[in-house]
Design goal:
Chain lengths: 136, 281
């Protein structure tokens, strides 16, 4: 009588190893990102630029700023203690209200993004604690 | 009369360049059912401005959430709103899905404590996605032959080896997307009829740098705001989905009682969560 194995675990061990490795990398990256996010959380910065040539715009990951054919038109920096620095755009000696309005909307969205991040980070942390509790 | 211009929602990611070829066809499912996965553009092909304008600008290091909308402003806004609704529906579904996974794991744990492994005939009838998940886990654990499991669960088709491996490749693909969005800034681009009308780099803590073409038109601004909202909501939804998938796999892997059970359970749990997501939509 021939023994038939219905287990498919052996044949997919390579696929499992790759998936396992992906999970490990993901966990490491998530940890690093969380650490960076905590380090960066002391201030919130929003910058609005305009460009005559969007094709030449680049982003410097190290300085965290756009460069190339761009002009800074407005900047807001909010510190964790509430101190706020705002550079208001000017056009022919007047406040450029159109750009300012666009910029203010971006600041509002940035605040919402930060709040969402904190919520997601707490959800992830709670899940981790729950896992530790059930395994401990 | 020309046909309406179709919008595109793309998630371009550097890490996917190799993996798309390695994992084969059928693994690159649209992210959250909306964003088509595409490898990052090669350096020479990158142009952030007018079509046909060559550029030596290097591609962004992180993922690019790119939306290309029709030239007609009303059509463009309609497509974008429909994308936003799609992601909001997924967000609304997630808490319910999380509860269902937790309830399933809890019931299984209780039955396991009572000496019953794999409740193929649970006390209360389970919905199809949960039944299928349990059947797959039983099958993966090698606790019964497929015919017996299928007999206990009529209408459920168990996966063959190739399907299990494809499931693993799909999960790996999904996790790569998560890895990409976790490890990098979000780059968000709005195009209308291939013309770049707004671009933003957003960090994890909300820091944002946006560039607008000059002169800046109000309709373009609104389109890019909505694209940005869509991309950021998608980023959060992707991570929340990943959290639910991994928690579900961790809890249910105890049923497999074998080393690497979490990894083995992941594709089945991921598939189940996708089915539940379709139900809620």
């Amino acid at each position: 009588m021939t023994e038939i194995s219905y287990s498919i675990t052996d044949s997919s061990s390579q696929a499992r190893e790759r998936l396992s490795s992906m999970l490990t990398t993901l966990a490491e990256k998530a940890g690093q990102t969380l650490q960076t996010a905590i380090d960066d959380a002391s201030s919130l910065e929003v910058i609005t630029y305009v460009s005559d040539d969007m094709g030449q715009v680049t982003y410097d990951v190290n300085t965290r700023q756009l460069s190339g054919s761009v002009k800074v038109r407005a900047l807001t920096r909010v510190s964790i203690d509430g101190d706020t620095v705002v550079c208001i755009p000017e056009k022919a000696g007047e406040v450029d209200t159109a750009i300012l309005q666009i910029h203010n909307e971006m600041v509002k969205q940035a605040r919402a993004t930060r709040s969402e991040l904190i919520q997601t980070a707490f959800t992830a942390a709670n899940g981790l604690l729950e896992r530790m509790r059930t395994q401990g | 009369m020309s046909a309406p211009e179709a919008p595109t929602f793309e998630l371009r990611a550097p890490l996917l360049t190799d993996s798309l070829a390695a994992d084969g066809p059928g693994t690159a499912l649209p992210v959250l059912g909306l964003w088509s996965a595409a490898p990052a553009a090669p350096r020479e092909a990158v142009s952030f401005g007018l079509p046909g304008v060559s550029s030596a600008v290097p591609p962004p290091e992180g993922p690019v959430w790119r939306v290309n909308l029709p030239a007609d402003p009303r059509q463009a806004q309609t497509h974008l709103s429909s994308g936003v609704q799609h992601i909001r529906a997924a967000q609304r579904a997630l808490p319910g899905i999380e509860q269902r996974m937790a309830a399933l794991a809890s019931e299984q744990a209780t039955r396991q404590q009572g000496g019953i492994s794999f409740a193929l005939a649970p006390a209360a009838p389970l919905p199809a996605p949960e039944r299928e998940l349990l059947a797959e886990l039983a099958y993966l654990a090698g606790r019964g032959d497929p015919e017996e499991i299928s007999f206990g669960l009529p209408g459920i088709a168990l996966p063959n080896r190739a399907q299990v491996q494809q499931g693993m490749a799909q999960v790996r693909h999904f996790l790569r997307h998560v890895l990409n969005v976790v490890a990098n800034y979000a780059w968000v681009e709005t195009r209308q009829h291939n013309l770049l009308v707004g671009r933003t780099a957003v960090g994890w803590t909300g820091d944002a740098e946006t560039v607008w073409p000059q002169p800046c038109r109000a309709e373009h601004v609104h389109l890019h705001w909505n694209t940005l909202d869509l991309a950021l909501q998608s980023r959060t939804t992707l991570i929340r989905t990943m959290i639910i998938v991994t928690h579900g796999a961790v809890k249910l892997s105890t049923l497999l009682a074998m080393p690497g059970g979490v990894v083995l359970a992941l594709p089945a749990v991921w598939k189940c969560i996708n089915r539940l997501m379709d139900e809620y939509r």
